[in-house]
Amino acid sequence: MIVWSCSEKVDSDQELITIEIDLDQSKQGKLSDHFAKPEYIILDYPDSNPVINLYNVVFRDGLIFIRDNRSHNLFVFDEEGHVVNTINANGMGPGEYIQMDDFHVTEDRIYIQDTHLQKQLEFDSNGEFIKEIKNSYQNTNFYVADTYSIYFMSYKTDFKGYNFVRRDNSTGKEEFFYKIDKPLENIVRVDNLNGLKEIESKDLLYFSMPHATKVVFIDKFSGFLKDTYFFDFGKHNVADEKRGYEKREELKVLVRDRKLVSGIDLIHSYLDKYVLFVRQGLDQRHYIFMDHEFNILN
Fold first, then answer.
1. Phi/psi zone of residue 199: left (φ > 0), alpha (ψ -120 to 50 degrees), beta?
2. Cα–Cα distance list, 96 to 9, 53, 122, 129, 140 (Å)
3. In what order do the strands lie in the sheet with 129-134?
4. What is the pLDDT of residues 256-296, one digit of tens each?
5. Rounded to 5 degrees, what are φ and ψ at 275?
6. Taking the mean position of all CA atoms in its chain, how far away is CA 58?
7. Distance (Å, rounded) from C-alpha 288 to C-alpha 298?
8. If exposure means fewest CB atoms within 10 Å of the residue's CB, which of 32, 39, 119, 218 is most exposed?
């Protein structure tokens, strides 16, 4: 079932902006009313180096970047589905890696992180190795700008209980933001497969917090936190005390039986809108369409 929400209220204060969403007011709809007809691209890769387990995809500048979390290779395809390049996990030496935890693509650079080897590798747009730096953060997601880098600490309390490290690319100076919610401190290492995303028209980055219904917005120029949005599903929220790792099995039962929303599966900015995708219980799926001021669209 495809549904979307239709009327809500927005409250804000200095620390948190709350968006109230009443899923009981959802109605059936068609995604085709909001999106153009899908285009299918058949990926053509050699049998000697296949895509085994596609994990996440980035579209940029007419290219398709695909991370395989079985082989840990990064594949680059053109818009016709032909392989343009691959960066392979092939060793532990300089310029090599064995485990890709995340990757980031800019206009002329490709960055790959291997937390097992504690390194972050930099390649040019053709996949030629440039350099590597030491990375001992044990983060999951990351983002590299011209003057700074941001690392998501995956709820580890190693940095004064903050969830993000902002590192100056020139001086190495570290600054921290977004205090970790108490129930989520030191839970199992988790990432967001969509990573830190850009909204070019608003000069912002955004990131959906795993195991939560919160989204952080970061100023793209400074690399510091701008706003945190809490999507409040009312009676369908998961109580904070149920979110800890030791309660994961109990949480699954609660989500199923009480038709709760435990997290945000996707938030995506396109054109002048956001689309929010959440699952309620086991079988209900909601697509919530909002303008860039978070007013919910009918």
1. beta
2. 50, 21, 11, 9, 19
3. 102-105, 109-114, 119-124, 129-134
4. 999 999 999 999 988 888 999 999 998 999 999 999 889 99
5. -120, 130
6. 11
7. 9
8. 39
List, in order, residues 6 or more apart from 288 with CB less than 8 Å away: 4, 5, 21, 275, 276, 277, 278, 296
Q: What is the pTM of this model?
A: 0.90
Per-residue pLDDT, 245: 59
Q: Count the Cβ atoms, other than its own, within 10 Å of residue 53.
A: 10
Centroid of chain to Cα 129: 25
The DSSP bridge partners found for residue 80 are none
Q: How many whole angstroms separate alpha carbon 246 and alpha carbon 62?
A: 44
The pair of structure tokens assigned to 62 is: 């007419």
Q: Which pairing describes strands 273-280 and 266-270: parallel, antiparallel, or unpaired?
A: antiparallel
Report, in angstroms and rounded to the nearest whole number, the Rg of the chain calculated over CA atoms. Answer: 20
